Amino acid sequence: MSSLFQVDGLVKRFGALVATDHVSLAVSAGEVHALIGPNGAGKSTLVNLISGLVPADAGHIVLDGVNLTPLPMHARVRAGLSRCFQITSIFREATVMDNLLLAAQAHAGSSLRWLRDRRHEQPLADTAHALAERVGLLHELGRTAGTLPHGAQRKLDVALALAARPKLLLLDEPMAGMGPEDSERMTELIHRLKADMAILLIEHDMKAVFALADRISVLVYGRVLVSGSVDEIRGNPQVQAVYLGTEDTMAEAA
Amino acid sequence: MKLERWLPWCAFAALAVFPLLAPALGLDFYVNFVRRALIFALAAASLNFILGFGGMAALGHMGFVGVGAYTLVALADAGHASAWLLWPAGAVAGGLVAAAIGSVALRTRGVYFIMITLAFAQMLYFAAVSLRAYGGDDGYNLMARPTFGLGLDSTHEPTFYWVVLALFGGVMALLNRATVSRFGHALMGIRDNEVRMQAMGYPVFRLRLADFALAGAAAGLAGALLVSHNSFVSPSVMHWTQSATLVVMVVIGGVGRRWGGPVGAAVWIGLEEIARQHTEYWHLPLGVLLVAIVFLAPRGIAGVLERRRRAAPAALAADGRPVEATP
Amino acid sequence: MTPILFIEQMLNGLGYGLMLFLLAAGLTLVFGIMDVMNLAHGSLFMGGAYVAASVHTRTDSFVGAVLAALVVVVLVALVLEALLVRRLYGRDHLAQVLATFGIILVADDLVKMAWGPAPIMASAPAALSGAVEILPGLPYPAYRLVILVAGLAVAGGLYLLVNHTRVGMLVRAGASNRAMAEFMGVRVGRIFSLVFLVGAALAALAGALMGPLTAVQVGMGEEILIPSLVVLVIGGIGSIRGAFVAAMLVGLVDTIGRAFVPLALRPLLPPTLVSDLSALIAGLATYALMAAVLAFKPTGLFPARG
């Protein structure tokens, strides 16, 4: 069975440190594949390699038959890969609407058009509204993004990634810094997204991981320790050993 | 907000009637002075398009002005005389050279970008100095002002003034339109969060290059106007200190503000003239002013006005909620 | 092209490179540690040239003139750093460019007020006005020889200072990662002031030494600044070693452009085209070098910052 998204033997070195050590994993269409692991395991580096923010030293990345490895970041987005950021990356000084318009604009033709006022473009506004509705920010469109509460900013971060109508969505710790209520809502949102795209979910929040994931890969010291279904991972003694000592993550899952 | 709407129109109208009123006020000399200020306002506006809206600190912009000027010189020297050819040629040349330089410089960031743009401007300067056919270091005297045809006499100073004013207005309208276009919003997005823009699929390098080229074309036009205005050009117009002065103008007017370039140019050139009238050591007060601006009013005039606005009681909308001030 | 001429030109290039190194060394450290872009560095160079020239004219002591230049410029730098440059730390580069450009304007007019607008006379010491036969058949101006020796001595001293003293180690730490150095307890602010003053002294020395070879005039700082920045960029910000290697490269390329390209072109092209083209190539050579280096190494040859 060929999967929608495949990573093969990905390597990244920073000097003597091997941050990503021959990582391979696969995500099928319609699947939520969670990536977990202790701090410093190299999860963020992996996300950066896949999205193209950081060039890989070796390995391949293939999405829906297209080799993404030689492509720069923006070309990977066009190929169907979109990401959101662990540290919220939005346009703080602009309104939520402007944030979404900017995201919509990226996938609605050329941005070199310089003679037409963008306010006249109703389709863009419609797309922005749709995005806002999807993540639950419809009532906040006029607000300056930087003034939103943390949870809403994370939602906006996800919305910006959704505008690309991706085949594979990279969610980099979407629950980061969220309280239980916000986390629940984000979990519901991700669950709704599942119908439209494959998702690679990096998370520490074990409750969300066990609720959402179809498959889980465990990353330790830049290497994939084990990949499997939720039950397989849960019952795996190696995984339990890895997490022994990080009692906070086990406690969260309880 | 309303002030910002009709103030530019008032200023434009005032500028338009100025040559008619000047003789009566004994300000004949100043018609040419204002004309020169308009040309620099255009150059400053084109720089603001890179600096303010694009977020790129380019320190060699006068190089493109020089390219426009020398393109005109080369064509005029070869016998061409129509402004319809010479001026667009200056713009095109400015745009092409900017695209060429940008394709290298835009691969760098931050301070390296500043320095590489500085260095490229000096390259253009040295290139002009080495062009002995066009006067080299001594400069080039334009024999005749480019002609307009259409029954207009370009040597008639007020006529030339009005043409410059019209061009200035036209280009400003285009640039202002660009800032609210898709292109403008994309540029500002890149300025504010480049990584996110890339992550959203924007071809950042291409967009920045287009910005650079467009601004270079406007600067090239300013250069063609400048040499037509002065009937003279020398490589010194491209010296990096001139580019630094242009940056100063934009900062004074307000980086990233619609009228930041023109306002800043007007203020700086005005202050320069006043200082010159009083002392031969006019660099001194201007230098002190610069330092003062950096420490006291880093956002320029626009920043000072905004601070005043914030300190004043907020305006209220119909439902009693405060109206958020829009930049 | 005789071997004699070749060696002579190469020595000139070396001398020019060493003077650029003196300027770039100060700039790269200020930049590397404090992240402050100081365009007024060239004005310190100008100050050194003017003070040395006039003291030499008055007292006939070249050594005294150089010392006077160092003292005066370092004092000015002290005041400048305390009042202004220190406050530019943490500001964006544009603000730094503007503020230091303002200083250039003020400095130019102050010099103009003190010495007048015309270039002033700076002569080499009488004792060094002759030539030394460094190789059989190769007389080389004694003064230029002294510059070479002085330049190399300073470079060597700087190398020792930066790489083999405790202070130097602190400087390198600050240049490579300021925040971390501060966390480790290094008083980076003090180090910066020291670095700024040393940089000023080097610039003054370069000015004092170069005075007799070039025109001492208002605006000379602005002229030498760009080549110094080119050296900085090629070498990599914060690296003395980078500044040295880059300065040697720039000196070399500049000489090749100025002296050898015309000779190479002369048999190929008509004479007027040769001189125009050589002037162009000479002017552009170092910038082409910079573009080439940046194409492969966008942060310079030996950047101190990781």
Description:
The complex is a heterotrimer of chains A (254), B (327) and C (306). With 254 residues, chain A is α/β, with parallel strands linked by helices. Chain A folds into 2 domains: 1-80 and 166-254, P-loop containing nucleotide triphosphate hydrolases (Rossmann fold, 3-Layer(aba) Sandwich), CATH 3.40.50.300; 90-165, no CATH class. Chain A has helices spanning 43-51, 73-78, 96-105, 122-135, 150-162, 180-193, 206-212, 230-235, 237-243, 247-253; strands spanning 5-14, 17-27, 32-36, 58-63, 66-67, 81-83, 168-172, 198-202, 215-220, 223-229. In chain A, helix 3 (96-105) runs parallel beside helix 5 (150-162), helix 4 packs across helix 5 and helix 7 packs across helix 10 (247-253). Helices cover 72% and strands 1% of the residues of chain B. Chain B has 13 helices and 2 strands, in the order H-H-H-H-H-E-H-H-H-H-E-H-H-H-H. In chain B, helix 2 packs antiparallel against helix 9 (204-230) and helix 3 runs parallel beside helix 5. The longest helix of chain B has 27 residues, at 204-230. Chain B starts with a helix and ends in a 16-residue tail after the last helix. Chain C has helices at residues 3-34, 41-59, 62-83, 93-115, 142-164, 166-176, 178-183, 188-210, 220-235, 240-265, 271-296, and strands at 131-135, 138-141. In chain C, a hairpin with a 2-residue loop joins strand 1 and strand 2 (138-141). In chain C, helix 1 (3-34) packs across helix 9 (220-235). The N and C termini of chain C lie far apart (44 Å). Chains B and C meet through helix 5, helix 10 and helix 12 of B and helix 4, helix 9 and helix 11 of C.
